[in-house]
From TrEMBL:
UniProt-listed PANTHER family: DIAMINOBUTYRATE--2-OXOGLUTARATE AMINOTRANSFERASE
SUPFAM superfamilies xrefs: PLP-dependent transferases
PROSITE patterns for this protein: AA_TRANSFER_CLASS_3
Classification via InterPro entries: Aminotrans_3, Aminotrans_3_PPA_site, Dat, PyrdxlP-dep_Trfase, PyrdxlP-dep_Trfase_major, PyrdxlP-dep_Trfase_small
Cofactor: pyridoxal 5'-phosphate
CDD domains: OAT_like
Region (Disordered): 1-26
Statement: the UniProt record of this protein carries the keyword Glycoprotein: no
Name used for this protein in its record: Diaminobutyrate aminotransferase apoenzyme
Listed Pfam families: Aminotran_3
Alphabetized Gene3D superfamilies for the sequence: Aspartate Aminotransferase, domain 1 (3.90.1150.10), Type I PLP-dependent aspartate aminotransferase-like (Major domain) (3.40.640.10)
Keywords from the UniProt entry: Aminotransferase, Pyridoxal phosphate, Transferase
GO molecular function: pyridoxal phosphate binding; transaminase activity
Amino acid sequence: MPDGPPPEELHLSQRPAVTEPIPGPRSSDLLERQAASEANTVAYPLSLPVAIDSARGATIKDVDGNVFLDFSAGIGVANVGHSNPYVVEAAKEQLDAVAHTIDFPTEARLAFIDALDSIAPGTLPGNSRIAFGGPTGTNAIEASIKLAKYNTGRSGIVGFDRGYHGGTMGALSLSGWSSYKSDYTPLLPDVAHVPYPTPRDGETPDAALEATLEEVRAVVSGRASGLDEPPAGIWVEPIQGSGGVIVPPEGFLAELAEITAAHDVLLIVDEIQTGMGRTGEWFASDHAGITPDAMTVGKAIGGVGLPLSATVYREELDTWGPSAHAGTFRGHVPAMVAGTRAIEYIDEYDLLDRATRVGSYLQDRFREMQQDCPSLVDVRGRGLLIGAEFRDADGSPLPDVVESIQTRCLRRGLVVWTAGIEGHVLRLLPPLVLTDEQARVGMDIVQDVVETVTEETADGR
Ligand SMILES: Cc1ncc(COP(=O)(O)O)c(C=O)c1O
């Protein structure tokens, strides 16, 4: 039973404390030094120009002493809060004992495998195998591609338009973002994409779902998309996170599971962003009551941001042999200890319920804003994964509005993130330990900023 502090006591403060300008002088100095030395691939400080000193719970302190509320959790990583002491203390003990054990057994490793198995969706608990490769979510996706090809003897892989599965060649092949891919083609052969079920132009959710399922049926039977036989697997995000927090119509995952099972095609559910309680269940697959053939996890499973990912799959698929998915870092043991502790902490403090409750509050606040902001065209999400979509009167996406909201929120002491291929969705994914007061204070800032920015846009300023 955890003796860690309750969620309310994890934070630096309940409200932000910032002094303009943002970035302050010390942040500016570090940002300049970084720009002079690090690669052009650095991206986050371009949108959120601060240098971080420390972080606790749902709060971040920059090097100038400004304290921000964090509604992004390091992009869905710090689910139990930054530097949660219950997690950190055990990870430190493990570091003192040994950090690197390749894939030799340790008590900590086996405890984590048991803990992850116990929270896996559907009938996986007690019937799963877990593969560790490199520490990133992307690597878990690569492992799952190999697993599906190996078990089916087929080469085709299928993803969804606007899906995001990571940055290496296999994961990128599955992703549905052409802007990330076009400079690096050719990627993997035998890849098809089908539309995610998103109602368009007045279409009903049922019609969008049926249109998607029709495409999926065509693809799995080898009748479409240039694959000359059924694919090895279909990879799906249960909610598309980076693609714009797109929540599919009810029944989508269950129907997908039925179709793939009937055609002996594997269903791989990518829970890297939606897992570890983010949507109010341990995994978003739980909402649909399905058992994925395989599930990829990453981001929050390393407890407090220690890098760890895994591919969890039905044990019948464990047909491959030693080093079938190799890597020096095959599960980092301090990260595993942190993951076990994070699972205990989520359980002890009912963070799944909290994600549902606080998430509803955040969505309600956005819905109130919709009364006065016609450009806030949609609010959606589940638990603490929430998207607010902005479009103009003609239906064109408004990425500049979202960027301006993000910048101004930062100046007021609130870190928010974005989503959508067009960048027109404001994405909130705070730590699950966000307090009611932090939720209220943060949404007061969002509301003020959204009203100001959308009024200015309407005035043509
Ligand atoms: C759904 C999903 N899959 C895969 C990835 C890739 O994970 P990583 O960035 O840890 O490689 C991400 C990252 O955002 C993601 O959201």
